[in-house]
């Protein structure tokens, strides 16, 4: 059976998906382009040929993750332009643990100037999008993003996964308080 050849664009998307998984699992410093290549089933030189460097691959993964958040927020707002609708949509995204964990990895790697500028720009875009889609004032948007960050941290710690481990009382208390607002 002949293998179907992927276009460079398709292969790039495949590599970004593998990068999201790899960088979410072991962070920027702990992940090599070889790790991503193995996960994607390509050679490490091919990864470098497409992205140029680990840094640019990491940035592509961060951009992919934030694009996903923007997309789910736009889709949710198309149904109901309210912070609660965006929050419900983000809850569904938290089930994809790799995306929120990658965001945290991006924040941690922001001391690298090239990464930091992208992470700050993308977080700012999400903030502005929340305000634009819902009409939220700055205080409400900050509160919404703060709660989202807390849920992101809980998801990264696997504290929100049902049945994974006994849920500590404080986790339920925080999650219930956020969801109740």
Automatic annotation (TrEMBL):
Entry-linked InterPro entries: Homeodomain-like_sf, HTH-type_TetR-like_transc_reg, HTH_TetR
Domain (HTH tetR-type) ranges: 9-69
Entry keywords, A to Z: DNA-binding, Transcription, Transcription regulation
Entry annotated with the keyword Transcription regulation: yes
DNA-binding region, residue intervals: 32-51
Name recorded for this polypeptide: TetR/AcrR family transcriptional regulator
């Amino acid at each position: 059976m002949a293998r179907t050849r992927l276009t460079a664009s398709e292969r790039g998307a495949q590599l970004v998906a593998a990068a999201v998984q790899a960088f979410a699992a072991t962070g920027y410093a702990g992940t090599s382009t070889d790790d991503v290549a193995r996960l994607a089933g390509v050679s490490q030189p091919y990864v470098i040929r497409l992205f140029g460097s680990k840094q640019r691959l990491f940035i592509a993964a961060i951009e992919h993750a934030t694009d996903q958040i923007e997309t789910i927020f736009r889709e949710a707002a198309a149904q109901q332009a309210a912070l609660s609708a965006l929050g419900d949509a983000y809850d569904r995204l938290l089930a994809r643990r790799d995306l929120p964990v990658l965001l945290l990895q991006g924040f941690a790697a922001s001391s690298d100037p090239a990464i930091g500028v992208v992470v700050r720009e993308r977080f700012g875009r999400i903030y502005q999008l929340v305000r634009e889609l819902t009409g939220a004032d700055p205080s409400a948007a900050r509160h919404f993003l703060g709660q989202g960050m807390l849920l992101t941290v809980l998801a990264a710690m696997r504290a929100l996964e049902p049945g994974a481990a006994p849920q500590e009382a404080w986790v339920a208390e925080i999650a219930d308080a956020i969801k109740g607002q």
